[in-house]
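ingest -> validate -> predict -> emit
validate: passed (alphabet ok, no gaps, 147 aa)
predict: started
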Amino acid sequence: MPSYPDSLIKSILRSVRTIAMVGASTNEIRPSYFAMMYLLNKGYKVIPVNPGAAGKQILGQTVYAGLKDVPAPVDMVDIFREAQYAPDIARETVAEKDRLGVKVLWMQLGVISTEAERIGKDAGLTVIMDRCPKIEHGRFSGEMGWL
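emit:
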């Protein structure tokens, strides 16, 4: 598991307001659905990205087919897909970075791609791998203490 200072994770979670969640699911039992619900409840704007559900709604939010379709601004792209897809999503993020204002490329638990990390870092993005913003938020807010 890659290591990141708590101060970096806290700083990201404090500064980010809008998250494009690539791989958001309409299925209520999928982890991405729970993570999206949590982040929405904590005041983040979460824009679901899923080509198979484009035009539908997840938790009241319109689903977009790809990052190229998402309206600006987006502070962070959260990859909720398998690691094999991360490099292509990183390339799409970099292509839309200036239009959207993306500063952070975040890969969910279990998603580790050194290629995606390099693509993001080479474009000046802060890159986090193998972490869940829901879990990290809960950890820093004290909500995870009962687990």
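The first strand starts at residue 18 and ends at 22.
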